[in-house]
Specification:
Order of helices and strands of chain A: HHHHHHHHHHHHHHH
Structural class of chain B: mainly alpha
Number of strands of chain B: 4
Shape of chain A: globular
Low-confidence stretches of chain A: none
Strand content of chain A: under 5%
Number of helices of chain A: 15
Low-confidence stretches of chain B: none
Oligomer: heterodimer
Number of domains of chain B: 1
Radius of gyration of chain A: 21 Å
Strand order of the largest sheet of chain B: 1-2
Structural class of chain A: mainly alpha
Shape of chain B: globular
Largest sheet of chain A: none
Number of strands of chain A: 0
Mean pLDDT of chain B: 89
Helix content of chain A: over 70%
Helix content of chain B: 55-70%
Order of helices and strands of chain B: HHHHEEHHHHHHEEHH
CATH architecture of chain B: Orthogonal Bundle
Mean pLDDT of chain A: 90
Chain lengths: 366, 301
């Protein structure tokens, strides 16, 4: 009897991640004490930085946009029974894809058409960089975890090569592309609200955030409410039963990884088309890995992913503010905290499940 | 290319392969016992950090090495606790500990050294001395570790049981050996070996610690482990090959070869990853991991 202990749904979805988060927060608080900082004061600075001003909220939502996309990418693959560690590399390639398509299309149009072209380019490259490991697992039996790790490094190497030797801006010392055309740059929230006559502070928050919410809704429909999603979950539950039901599990594996990569591409859309307006080296800067924490915290459900992406967005923005006010603390505190969250939610599942099961399930007399 | 240049490449190739060899053997012990270890990178990083801190504070390289082994083993035990005692997901645990190590070393580095995470340059007795041909004692230690690992896995009772734990844990359990103790033993060995790997990085190859200084070497070691099909001597040769590739890549930077032109450094850097992908996909030979690797053992069945 190795099946996980059954828990009421709300305990599994809310109490489990909450207690894991509490453990991680406690560990982080002890860490702060150890380096001579006051955890309560740090928390107050973080809260104020993330939510205390319009600007703070804008930055929080901008970070959350990246986390919704990478979190959804990890979650969708997880539901199909795969652990996609490659969101980082998929997003990197997606950034290259968006820029390539926009640069190619700029010769024909300068208008709004560039936006869907850029997004399509990003999704195509991201999907391809996810589909290859998926294909290798489905047809050649290599484990998707190892292959996606290798593909992360390959993406980093390929992008450095392209940015230095092929698509780099002339005369620039640092590996980056030239700016993409104005028409392909996504509208900032400031511009969107200004059109309605409302003034809000300038932040990187842009139209990608709406795309992220839309993506979460589409993923929810696709996974929970469609035949495709049923097949996907059945594939994830174990190949035998899925094959009995007549599902082409190999095809589902490749498809799930391609979709996962296409979702990770959203992160590149936010950074490249929404904020930087060019491809910078290492622009994915770890968002793909934090996406793992986001997905695990959100129990691999789109609604959970949005909520935990908001939490991590606030942590990122609050962390930036904290690093600014307290020089001893760097933003690496948030990386540490993400690691702790992944460890507690993902690897120590049983540690929380056993006592909670004892609390919330009625004792059955055998 | 003259003989001297060739010798230099071999020297630096061997030097660069030493941390890979340690980390690869660490992965070998862990995975042979049935515990998948994605966290080699994190263990190396925290070891490199601990080594630099201890050597910086005491001025003694060997204390640095001890600190590295201690820190790396501690992180390894966390992985062991999650994987063995809690029967958690070993891959998730590895990913988590990598992030933990990356964040923690940069954060504490900033607090301790106040130089944006990097340590001040170490010199004198705080660094591992060069013995001959650009090698430190770590090169000898690494080669002995390969020898001992190969011998122990093939010829000792502990080695046999570790291999059995990774192939058929139920048989080990039924034979009355403690699977838990065996696997913890292997995880601790992996921690010690990663400790040497990290200390080599910050006290031997570089003169101090830099945030993220492992730069994916833990994953290259993982690739080497797969490439070597989970065997000790092939692991040594693969790491040596990857080290030589690295040395060649450094050497060829900006050099134009007659008839070929300039080879982009990136093409050589990508080779270990490409080799691993091709091999795992079964396009050249087959790499089969220990059968029970990654699966938590549940007694009653």
């Amino acid at each position: 009897m190795s099946a996980p202990l059954p828990l009421p749904v709300w305990v599994d979805r809310v109490l489990m991640p909450a207690s894991a988060l509490a453990t991680a927060a406690l560990a982080a608080a002890l860490l702060l004490l150890a380096i001579g900082e006051n955890p309560a004061e740090a928390l107050a600075i973080m809260l104020r930085g993330a939510l205390g001003s319009g600007e703070g909220i804008g930055f929080t939502l901008y970070y959350a946009t990246n986390f919704i996309f990478t979190g959804l990418a990890v979650a969708l693959a997880y539901r199909a029974g795969m652990f996609n560690i490659g969101a980082e590399g998929q997003a990197t390639m997606a950034g290259i894809g968006a820029a390539l398509m926009i640069f190619a299309a700029e010769r024909f149009t300068q208008g709004l058409l560039l936006v869907p072209i850029g997004i399509a380019g990003a999704m195509l490259f991201g999907a391809l960089w996810g589909a290859i490991p998926g294909w290798l697992q489905a047809w050649r039996g290599s484990h998707v975890v190892i292959t996606t790790i290798m593909f992360n490094f390959l993406a980093a190497i390929v992008s450095v090569y392209l940015l230095v030797n092929v698509m780099g801006k002339e005369g620039s010392m640092q590996p980056e592309t030239r700016l993409i055309a104005d028409g392909s740059q996504l509208w900032t929230f400031q511009a969107l609200f200004a059109a309605l006559g409302i003034t809000i502070p300038a932040t990187p928050l842009n139209f990608s955030f709406i795309l992220a919410l839309l993506a979460a809704f589409v993923v929810w429909i696709a996974i929970e409410r469609s035949k495709f999603g049923f097949h996907l979950r059945l594939t994830g539950a174990g190949n035998e039963s899925a094959r009995y039901a007549g599902i082409d599990t190999r095809r589902m594996t490749v498809l799930a990884m391609a979709l996962s990569g296409a979702l990770a591409a959203g992160m590149a859309v936010n950074e490249v088309m929404g904020v930087q307006h060019r491809v910078l080296i290492e622009f994915s800067s770890g968002y793909g890995f934090v996406g793992i924490a986001v997905a695990l915290m959100g129990r691999n459900h789109p609604v959970g992913v949005i909520l935990s992406a908001l939490l991590f967005g606030a942590l990122y923005q609050g962390g930036a503010e904290l690093a600014f006010e307290r020089p001893a603390i760097t933003r690496d505190l948030i990386v540490t905290l993400s690691g702790l969250v992944i460890f507690c939610v993902g690897a120590l599942d049983q540690l929380y499940r056993t006592p909670l099961a004892r609390l919330f399930t009625r004792r059955v007399v055998r | 290319m003259d003989a001297l240049a060739l010798l230099q490449i071999i020297e630096s190739g061997l030097r660069l392969s030493v941390p890979l060899i340690f980390a690869c053997l660490a992965g070998l012990w862990s995975e042979k016992s049935g515990i998948v270890d994605i966290g080699l990178e994190g263990k190396m990083l925290i070891a490199a950090f601990a080594a630099a801190v201890a050597a910086f504070l005491t001025g003694q390289a060997w204390i640095g090495v001890l600190a590295a082994v201690f820190a790396s083993t501690l992180l390894g035990l966390l992985h062991g606790f999650a994987s063995i005692s809690q029967r958690g997901n070993q891959i998730i645990s590895g990913v988590a500990l990598n992030m933990l190590a990356a964040g923690l070393t940069a954060l504490l580095g900033n607090v301790i050294f106040k130089q944006g995470g990097r340590s001040p340059p170490l010199d004198g007795a705080a660094r591992l001395p060069e013995l001959a041909l650009g090698q430190s004692a770590m090169t000898i230690l690494a080669i002995s570790a390969v020898l001992l690992t190969a011998l122990a896995l093939a010829r000792t009772r502990f080695g046999l049981r570790v291999r059995a734990a990774g192939e058929n844990p139920a048989a080990v359990d039924n034979a009355g050996a403690s699977l838990t103790r065996l696997r913890y033993g292997a995880v601790i060995l992996a921690g010690i070996l990663c400790g040497f790997a990290g200390a080599t990085l910050s006290l031997g190859q570089a003169a101090g610690f830099l945030p993220m200084m492992t730069a994916g070497q833990g994953f290259v070691a993982l690739a080497a482990l797969i490439f070597a099909k989970w065997r000790a001597w092939p692991a040594f040769w693969t790491c040596l090959l990857f080290g030589l590739l690295d040395a060649v890549a450094i050497r060829l930077q900006g050099v134009s070869l007659p008839g070929i032109g300039a080879i982009p450094v990136q093409a050589i850097q990508a080779l270990p990853y490409l080799f691993t992908i091709v091999l795992l996909a079964g396009f050249m030979g087959r790499a089969v991991p220990p059968r029970a690797a990654g699966q938590p053992y549940v007694k009653e069945r």
